[in-house]
């Protein structure tokens, strides 16, 4: 049964990789920076005062500014003064507000945010003369298609307008459904400059019956999202407002909650551009679980690289996975690479790793040799930036074939010769030098590992540091009061314990004994306590002690109960159980941030 599930999982991953095969080139792709538009408030005030002598027309306008032949806007702009443009905006405002009875804010926004339309209007008159008088007269006898400046003011370009213009309508007031839904979005706080994109991607949301759109917005707030988060979500992903509450999005939200993220985290880090495939985002989260990432690792990964899952709906994860397979790595080797190097998905790591692979390809190294390099030295390849092959060859006065042979003979030469940060790389290379593994192996044998076994090979990759450093940390636990046999069992169950420095271990043990008043043996039942960062330990334990002093919590809860649960569960069981709990929790977090 388990074998069958694994085969299905591998088959599913392979199919997805096949679908994105055209992305698989060995060069890093730069991330786009998203710009955040300033929020604008809007409201609708109907005023029925007419100053132009015109009435609703049933025929098409004599001239459609979007379709007419005219000089490019840049040429017109160069001939039109700022004063003329300002006067034209005022005339357009008067026309829309006084003659066409649009609300004050609507008319003002349209007139000030449709520069191409205004320039096109000015091209119809002699802008050197009295602009106000000439343009007022022009509009009196040449009614405009109001949808043109309206859509432009929503952030669309002139080239995007033609397919959006209604065939048999020219006045905005003739499309009451459009205006009603537009004003619902304005009143909710969605920037008008974002609505053009929303209209293009999900026109259906502007055709809802009265009251429907507002209820959809409120439905997302009922999921626990703040208004600001809903605004950002629907602005960049308007399809959420089509149909009922998107169950695929809810699934993603629930998975993020399980990791300890609050509801509004997604709103802070969701890129403002692009659309999202929530099914694929959910599958990406599942995929990361399957290849060995635990909750703590995922939490740290998303904190340092929050766009990872959202940019391309998590496609980057599969693209990297596919690139590694294309190098010739086997599926289980890629799984192992991901699980042993959780940082492999950070933007910097991916960039450096692919740069190193590109370097090796450029000097003519075969795929088999490159895949061996990745398996043996992935951490180094991802942690340093390399010079170009041309620069390295020039400095060494050798050809690319010779450089390739040098690196084949001693793979670590790649980092000595091509690294831009020689000192740091030297330190890392020393740690990875096979001769240094002798000390580490001797330490493992003292712990009871069997020589030349797969267990030793795996442990060598899990433990960080030299053999003498690992022994020092082991001795630290023994000197703290634990039996050496007990420490051996702890280390075998949780190897990451010895990846903490001696100072950090001493600090955590002191905190356990002197602040929590817990016996040292508590770490035997939950050795992962020594692996959590002090920030998490400090926050949660102080909150627990506060509750314990008030008689709300049991005197000696297990460390795993306090530390291992997600933030959402911790707040439910340790914060919300006391009326003053939320205030105390916020105080603890603020005091930590300020320090």
Sum up the structure in keywords.
595 residues, Mitochondrial transcription termination factor family protein, single chain, mainly alpha
Task: Describe this structure as you would to a colleague.
The chain is an all-alpha fold. The protein has 34 helices and no strands. Helix 1 packs across helix 17 (315-326), helix 3 crosses helix 5 (115-122) and helix 27 (467-480) runs parallel beside helix 29 (502-515). The longest helix is centred in the N-terminal third of the chain and has 18 residues, at 2-19. The protein is extended and about 95 Å long. The model is unreliable at 1-10, 16-63, 66-75 and 423-435 (pLDDT under 50).
């Amino acid at each position: 049964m388990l074998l069958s599930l694994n085969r299905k999982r591998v088959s599913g991953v392979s199919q997805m990789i096949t679908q994105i095969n055209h992305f698989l080139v060995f060069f890093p792709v730069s991330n786009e920076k998203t710009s955040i538009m300033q929020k604008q408030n809007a409201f609708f005030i109907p005023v029925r005062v007419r100053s132009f002598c015109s009435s609703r027309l049933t025929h098409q306008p004599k001239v459609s500014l979007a379709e007419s032949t005219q000089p490019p806007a840049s040429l017109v702009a160069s001939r039109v003064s700022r004063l003329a443009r300002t006067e034209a905006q005022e005339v357009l405002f008067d026309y829309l507000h006084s003659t066409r009875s649009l609300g004050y804010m609507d008319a003002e926004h349209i007139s000030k945010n449709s520069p191409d339309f205004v320039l096109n209007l000015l091209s119809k008159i002699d802008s050197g003369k009295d602009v106000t008088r000439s343009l007022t007269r022009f509009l009196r006898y040449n009614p405009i298609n109001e949808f043109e400046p309206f859509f432009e003011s929503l952030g669309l370009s002139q080239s995007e307008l033609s397919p959006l213009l209604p065939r048999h309508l020219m006045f905005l007031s003739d499309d009451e459904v459009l205006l009603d839904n537009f004003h619902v979005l304005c009143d909710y706080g969605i920037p008008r400059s974002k609505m053009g994109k929303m209209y293009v991607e999900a026109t259906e949301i502007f055709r809802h019956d009265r009251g429907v759109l507002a209820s959809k917005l409120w439905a997302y707030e009922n999921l626990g999202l703040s208004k600001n988060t809903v605004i950002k979500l629907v602005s960049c992903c308007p399809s959420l407002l089509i149909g009922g509450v998107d169950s695929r999005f809810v699934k993603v939200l629930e998975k993020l909650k399980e990791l300890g993220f609050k509801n509004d985290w997604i709103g802070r880090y969701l890129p403002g551009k692009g659309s999202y495939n929530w099914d694929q985002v959910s599958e990406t989260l599942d995929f990361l679980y399957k290849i060995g990432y635990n909750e703590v690792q995922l939490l740290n990964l998303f904190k340092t690289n929050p766009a990872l899952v959202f940019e391309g709906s998590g496609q980057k994860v599969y693209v990297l996975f596919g690139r590694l397979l294309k190098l010739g790595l086997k599926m289980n080797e890629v799984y192992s690479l991901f699980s042993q190097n959780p940082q492999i998905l950070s933007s910097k790591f991916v960039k450096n790793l692919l740069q190193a692979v590109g370097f090796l390809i450029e000097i003519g190294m075969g795929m088999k040799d490159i895949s061996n390099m990745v398996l043996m030295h992935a951490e180094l390849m991802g942690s340093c930036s390399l010079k170009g092959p041309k620069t390295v060859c020039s400095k060494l006065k050798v050809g690319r074939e010779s450089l390739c042979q040098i690196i084949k003979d001693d793979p670590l030469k790649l980092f000595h010769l091509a690294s831009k940060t020689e000192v740091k790389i030297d330190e890392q290379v020393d740690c990875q030098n096979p001769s240094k593994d002798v000390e580490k192996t001797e330490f493992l044998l003292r712990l009871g590992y069997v020589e030349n076994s797969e267990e030793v090979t795996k442990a060598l990759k899990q433990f960080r540091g030299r053999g003498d450093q690992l022994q020092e940390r082991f001795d630290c636990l023994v000197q703290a009061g634990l039996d050496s046999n007990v420490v051996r069992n702890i280390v075998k169950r949780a190897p990451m314990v010895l990846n903490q420095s001696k100072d950090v271990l001493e600090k955590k043990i002191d905190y356990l004994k002197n602040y929590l008043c817990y016996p040292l043996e508590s770490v035997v039942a939950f050795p992962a306590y020594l692996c959590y960062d002090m920030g998490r330990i400090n926050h949660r334990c102080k909150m627990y002690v506060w509750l314990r002093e008030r008689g709300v919590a049991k005197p000696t809860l297990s460390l795993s109960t306090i530390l291992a649960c997600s933030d959402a569960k911790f707040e439910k069981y340790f914060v919300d159980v006391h009326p003053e709990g939320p205030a105390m929790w916020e105080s603890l977090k603020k005091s930590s941030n300020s320090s």
